[in-house]
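Hi,

I'm pasting everything inline rather than attaching a file, because the server keeps stripping attachments. The sequence lines come first, and each chain or strand is labelled.
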Amino acid sequence: MANIDITLNVNGKDHRVAVRSTEMLLEVLRDRLGYVGTNKVCAQGICGACTVIVDGKSTTSCLALAAQFDGARIITVEGLEHDGKLDPLQEAFMKHGAVQCGYCTPGFLMSARAFLNDNPHPTRTEIIDALRGNICRCTGYKKIIDAVEDVAARSAR
Amino acid sequence: MSSIDDGEKFALGTEGEQRPWQDAYRALVQSFEAGSGRRYVGHSVPRNDVLYKVRGKAKYAANIALPDMLHGRFVRSTYPYARIKRVDVSKASALPGVRCVLTAADIPDDRLKVGSLVKDTPILAKDLVRHVGEPVVAIAADTLEIAHAAAALVEIDYEPITPVLTPEEALKEDAPRLHPNGNLIANLSNAVGDVDAALARADVVLEDTYTNEPIEHSYLEPQGGISFIDPDGVLTLLVCTQYPHFHHKQLADVTGLPLEKIRVIQTVIGGAFGGKIDVTIECASCLMTLKTRRPVKMLLENEEVFSATTKRHTMKIRHRLGAMKDGRIVALDMDILADGGAYSSYSLIVAGRCVVHAALPYDIANVRARIRTTFTNNMTAGAMRSFGIVKLAFATESQINKLADELGMSPIEVRRINAVETGTKTVTGQILHAVGFKKTLDAIEPIYEERKKALAAGPKKPGVLRGLGLASLGYGIGYSGVRNPSTARIELTEDGIVIANCGTPDIGPGSDTALAQIVGEEAGVNIGRIRVVSGDSTKTDDSGPTSASRTTYFSGNAAMLAGRDFRRQFSDLLAKKLDVTPENIRIDNDQVIVNNKPMRFEDACATLGSDVKQIMAYGVFNPDSELDFVTFKGNPYPTYTYATQLAEIEVDIDTGKIEVPRFWAAHDAGRIVNPMGAEGQIEGGVVMGLGMALWEKICRSDGYIQNPGMRDYLLPGAKDAPTEITTIFIDNEDETGPFGAKGVAEASLIPVPAAVAAALHDAAGIRLNAMPMEAETVVKKLAARKGNKP
Ligand code: FES
Ligand code: FES
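And the predicted assembly:
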C-alpha cells in the first residue's frame, strides 16, 4: 500500500507523517503522534468522543481519512490550554461538575469550543443543538450544557 | 514505569506530572470551601481527577503503551450454540509478527473456567460454544493489523446445535441441558402471610405482565487492559474494572502464581454501570504475557462491547396486586422469569435482590415472590445499574399507579398509605431505620399538584398530549445478605501528603472525591493534600467491588474511622516529639494547633520528619448484614435509600414520539457528601432510565444481536434529555452512615420507566407494559383507541 506524505499542524506544531490511504485521522493523532487525549469509542461517527477541530470546524476524526488533511491546522484537547492556563470551557466543566468518567469530555470540549468560536453568544437551545453529535452516558447532559452556557454568558459581547 | 514502581495509582501519572496540578487542585478546592460548619462533607467539591480529565491527560487503558507491547485480539464464536469440531491455528501462528496463539488446549482443564460467582465461563471455549461472540482463540501480535490478519486465518469447524433462546424453552422437560447442572441459574422464592386468602378478600385485584428488552450498559470506554511482567517478576495487569481484587484472586487460580506475584491495578475508568465487573480480557491477556514474557494490550471494539459483553436481564414479571377500597395494599404476588443468557455472571445476585425487594418501599402484609432465571444461548446477562430492580419497579409502580386510578385516589396518597417508615418490618423481618420515603412524597406532592393545574390550564399545543406520572423506590445499599466489609488505611509523607488507601475503585461517579472529603473532614486536613489510592490489589485491601451503590456508605465509613485514627496517631506522635500532652494538640482547617499556637500542617509534618512513617491509621467497616437464602429471613442490607420521581411528558399524536421536557427527582440518600456529584448521578441515572423506558433495546434474532454498535442502538443525546431536571435531596441523616450518608448511584434510574409509563397514561390514556415504549407502539395504541371510540 502506498504511503502518502502529509503535514499536519497539531496544536501549533508541524508534524510530517507518511500515512496509509485508509488511515483515519484519529489513528494518526493517537497512535502515530501520541495525542491520546482524543478518545475512540464507536469509530462510526456516532458518539463524538473523537471530535477535534480541523481548520476551525469540529470534525469526528474516526471517520476522516488522514490523507485528506495535508496542511490542515488541527486542535485537540491537549491544545486547549495555553501557558499553563486552561480554556474557560475546561474551567467551566470542572466548576459545573460536567465531568464524571470523562471519556466523552475531550469530544464535548472540542465540539463546544468550535461552536463558541463561531457563535459566542448562543441560546441554550442552540447549545443543545450544537452538542447533538456527542454522547455522554454518565451526566445526563445538564451540567455539560450548564458549563457551556456559563462560558457563553461570561464572554464579552 | 516509575509510576508503577513508586506505587502511585498508575492512571494519574508520575509524581512530577502530578505536583503542579495537585497545587492547582488545592487552590480550586479552597474556592469551594464554606466558611463555617463542615468544611468538606456537604459541599460541591470538584472531583479530584477532574484536572486530568479536562486536559486529556487521564490514563485510560487505551492510552497506555509500554515498550515491546503486543496487541491482542479474540476470535469469537459465530454460532449461538455449537460443538467445536476442530480448531486449526497453524496458518495464524505462521504469520510473521504473530507471537502467541492461545486456545483452550493451552490451558489446563482445572484452570479453564472462571466467573464472578460461579466458575462456569471458559476463558476460551472448549468443545462447545454457548453464545455468539464467545471467545475461542486469543492472539497476540506485534501490531493490531497483524493480530486482525491472523484472526482471519484461524479455522474453526463448528457443528451447530439448535439453540435455546427463551427461558420458556429452557424450562421445557426435553430442552437440551446447557450446563451440567441443568438450565436453572436461580430459583428463589419467599412468601410472608397468606397471599391467596388476602387476594380473595381484596376489593380490587390487578393483574398484569411486564416485560423489557436487553440493554447494553453503553459506557463509552471499551473494556481493555495491559498485562506485563514488572522488573520484580510480578505479573501486573492494568485494567478498567469495577473490582480489581476479584481479578487478582482469579488470576492466581488461572495462572497458578502466588497472590504476591500478581498485581491488578484499576486504570481510570470510562464508565461501567455494572458492565465492567466480569471477566473479559483479563485472563487471556495475562496468559499471553506469561507465554511471551511481553506486555500485551487488549482492547475491545465497539462491536464486541455490544455483541459479546453482558447485558441487562430480560424479565417477564407476572404481577398481582390486591387492595382494599381505602387504598391499603393487602397482597402482592409476583412471579418472574428471567433470561440469564449463556453463563451465570451475576444472575444469582440479581435474583436474590428481586426477591428481597419485592414489596419495597411498601409495607404489605402478604407477599409472595418467585424468580427463576435460566440459561439460554443468548449473550450472558449480568450486573447493570440497579441489579434488576428497575424492572421490578416498572411492574410494581405501574400496578400502584393503576390502583390509584382504579380507586380514584391520588398516586401520592396511595403510596403514603402504604409507605414503609422507620420501624417497619420488611418481608425478611428486618426493622427499617432512618426511612425518609414519605418525605420524598411530601417533596413531590406540591410540584405534582402545581404542574397538574398548569397542564390543565396551559395553552394546548396542537397534536401534542401532555401528562404527568410518578413512581417511587426503596433500594438496599451493598451486597445482598452477605458480609461485605470495606477497609481504609491512611499514611503520611514527610511533605504532608495524606495517602488514603481504599479498596473500592472509583468507576466514574467520583467516589474517590467523596472519600477524600470524608477523610479531610474527619482528619481536619485540606483535601487537596489527600491522595486517594483505590483499586490497586497491592496497595489496598479487598473491599469488595464498586457496585450496589455501596462505596460512599461502606468505604466512606471505613475512611471516616481511618481519618479518626489518623488524627489520634498524628497527635500522639507530635505530642511525643514536642513533649506536650496529646490533649493539647488539635488538627483543624489544615492547621495543627499546639497549646493554642497554630502551625501549618506541612510544618508539623516536617517537625515529625521520618517519624511520619510510624503513622498507619486504619478503619474497617463491616456491618452485620446477613440473610438466609432459603428462609429469606435476616437483615440483607445495612441501610436503604428511597425516592419519588415525577415525569412530565409530551406525546406527539401523529408520530407517537415522547418527549420529556421536565423531570423531578426527590431522593432520600441520607446526608449528601457532595451535592454536585450526587446531582450528577441523579441526572445521569434519569437520562439512562429514559433511554431504557423509551428507546434502547438490543435486538436479537436466532441468538444473533442485530444491532451490535452505537450506530443502530438509540442512546439518549443532549436533545433527548429533559430540558429541566430538578433534584431534591430531602433532609434525612442516617446515623449509621459516614456523616449520615447512605448512597446515590443506582436509585436514580429505578423509578424512571414507571413514571414515564404513568405519564403516558395520563397524557394519552394508554398503558404500556413493555419497555421500551416505542413511538410505533404508541401510535398503534392511539389509533386502536380512536377506533374504539368513534
Ligand atoms: S469515535 Fe468517532 S464518533 Fe465515535
Ligand atoms: S462523563 Fe462518562 S461518558 Fe460523559
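The beta strands of chain A are 3-10, 13-20, 51-54, 57-60, 73-75.

If the labels don't parse on your end, tell me and I'll reformat.
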